[in-house]
Write a structure and sequence with these properties.
binds arginine; Gyrase A, domain 2; Isoleucyl-tRNA Synthetase, Domain 1; 4-stranded parallel beta sheet; alpha/beta; 3-stranded antiparallel beta sheet; globular
Length: 563
């Protein structure tokens, strides 16, 4: 129970004939200044009920309250200010976290039900973009958060490995590519070919048709086309895996769009059976006007299928395979319309479970204010970003802590952590402009700052030779500790909020605030002073390390013990 809930219950006991518990809770305020207590109850709105002045009401209530469960209760004009019993509350908070450890905040909302998470999903033969990075790290963190609240997340990399672009690539490779060049630098070379195709196609419109024809060959199992495609795919995956390894992120499935190639006929048949397919200028569409949406294009004039058709097959496959409680798609907000159409088309087919499909959009990353386009070859190479961040961490370690053990490993944990945290710390829908300096910055609200705070707290515990004693009654009543104790109280609620909103930034912001609160505490309080609360202060430091580490884990960051 947090302080507000505690006060609400006590106030309610006194005025339960006149106000409901929820009303009491809604009226309670957290005062800005500690001088006004931990929780305040304003009585203005009770004047109508009691036909008395608010001041009078406040003192009447105060008289009836059992003051012994508080440090004190003060009446200031129309307000009742409650000062919590710090020793009692801090004891409760500390012993709970000490007992539960990293499991603090765990709840079973999901009964271990399956939640497939469509995430990362880069397109083969192209570099992983900043957008795919966002999807990867946001998806990974959501998976960890959902696990904490009792779901079984299934991380699916829905690779973009099918579609007309592979026809184009096959043509470009045959015209301008060589095996050797692709082997040397697979993604670089395939990207060069892809960009060249689009440049050439501007002057030569027949190229587009050639590309489409080549894709049809691929769809029809033409051997040469298939083996080129397989080769492009495996070379690309090798490159992607390098980045996933650096990030420390794994997947449960790599079933991409191509996997659904033989599962789309069923979708088309089902649509036909339900009389949902309409012809429109030679193409087949599903009318979605009942949902205020444009029709979904299911089959092109040339019989080719589309992105949405593959997504319909994938959704059905996931329902059958996982019987999901929810099915999530962590994909940029530029695809919001697509997911609206996808859900609506499935709903039209009578699949009510499409209501459980959730698109989790995120904002675009721009560079110098402009959208990045792979077609034009404007990309930020992720591997370079990660390597730059690691290098920058290495430089800082060399400068500040040259004798550190496992320097390489720590530099990797910190550099990669910087990139991941930078991506997760803002509401996911915010757009941001990419600058390398920003990403590898270690001061301010960054991953390395949180990691550094964790390492600092760990070093205090080491220095003090702190040994946790589960049976000790740790309790604190100084103002400095109280600030942190109050903050820590909100941990389980914070986890619920992050899970409910699918919002890793809730955890990231919590980590930053906890780190800031701890650093302030460290600056103002002599933690190691030899008085009778030293052990309890160390227990508080310990609890901070448990929660900082858990926050970092939920975001997909490691927590080095020394930095
Ligand atoms: N490969 C797509 C892209 O890069 C993202 C796929 C998202 N997932 C999905 N099921 N549509 O734009």
């Amino acid at each position: 129970m947090n302080n507000k809930e505690f006060v609400a219950k006590k106030v309610f006991d006194v005025i339960k004939d006149d106000l409901a518990m929820e009303q009491v809770e809604r009226l309670l305020e957290i005062p800005k200044s500690a001088a006004h207590g931990d929780v305040a109850f304003p009585t203005f709105s009770l004047a109508k009920i009691y036909h008395k002045a608010p001041q009078q009401i406040a003192s009447d209530i105060a008289e009836k309250m059992d003051e012994s469960s508080f440090e004190k209760i003060e009446v200031v004009g129309p307000y009742l200010n409650f000062f919590m019993d710090k020793k009692k509350v801090s004891h409760e908070v500390l012993s709970t976290v000490i007992e539960q450890g990293a499991q603090h905040g765990d709840v079973n909302l999901g009964n271990n039900s399956n939640v497939p998470i469509d995430m990362s999903s880069p397109n083969i033969a192209k570099p992983i973009s900043m957008g795919h990075l966002r999807s990867t790290v946001i998806g990974n963190s959501i998976a960890l958060i959902l696990q904490k609240v009792g779901y079984n997340p299934i991380k699916i990399n829905h690779l973009g490995d099918w579609g007309t672009q592979f026809g184009k690539l096959i043509i470009a490779y045959k015209k301008w590519g060589t095996e050797e060049e692709v082997r040397n630098d697979p993604i670089g070379e395939l990207l060069r070919l892809y960009v060249k195709f689009h440049e050439e196609a501007e002057d030569d419109s027949s190229l587009e048709e050639e590309g489409r024809a080549a894709f049809r060959e691929l769809e029809n199992d033409n051997q040469e086309a298939v083996s080129l495609w397989k080769w492009f795919r495996s070379e690309s995956l090798k490159e992607f895996d390098k980045i996933y390894d650096m990030l420390g992120i794994t997947f449960d499935s790599y079933k991409g769009e191509a996997f659904y190639e033989d599962k789309m006929d069923e979708i088309v048949e089902l649509l036909e059976e339900k009389h949902l397919l309409k012809e429109d200028q030679g193409a087949e569409i599903v009318d979605l006007s009942a949902y205020d949406l444009n029709p979904a294009l299911i089959k092109k004039r040339d019989g080719g299928t589309l992105y949405i058709t593959r997504d319909m097959a994938a959704a059905l496959y996931r329902k059958r395979t996982y019987d999901f409680a929810k099915s999530l798609y962590v994909v940029g907000n530029e695809q919001s319309y697509h997911f609206k159409q996808l859900k609506a088309a499935l709903k039209e087919m009578g699949y009510d479970w499409s209501d459980d499909m959730v698109h989790i959009p995120f904002g675009l990353i721009t560079k110098d204010g402009k959208k990045l386009s792979t077609r034009k070859g404007q990309i930020v190479l992720l591997e370079e970003v990660l390597n730059d961040a690691i290098q920058s961490a290495q430089d800082q370690i060399a400068e500040k802590n040259p004798d550190l053990e496992n320097k390489e490993q720590v530099a990797r944990q910190v550099g990669v952590g910087a990139v991941i945290f930078h991506d997760l710390k803002n509401d996911r829908l915010n757009t941001f402009d990419f600058t390398l300096d920003e990403v590898v910055r270690f001061e301010g609200e960054t991953g390395p700052y949180v990691q550094y705070t964790y390492a600092r707290a760990m070093s205090i515990l080491r220095k003090a030779n702190f040994n946790l004693d589960q049976n000790k009654n740790y309790a604190l009543d100084d103002e400095g500790s109280w600030e942190i104790v109050k903050f820590i109280q909100g941990y389980p609620k914070m986890i619920l909020e992050a899970a409910d909103k699918y919002e890793p930034s809730v955890v990231a912001k919590h980590a930053i605030k906890l780190a800031q609160a701890f650093n302030k505490y460290y600056g103002n309080t002599r933690i190691l002073a030899e008085d009778d609360q030293q052990e309890a202060r160390l227990a508080l430091v310990y609890v901070v390390t448990v929660l900082l580490k858990e926050d970092l884990r939920l975001l997909g960051l490691e927590a080095p013990e020394r930095m």
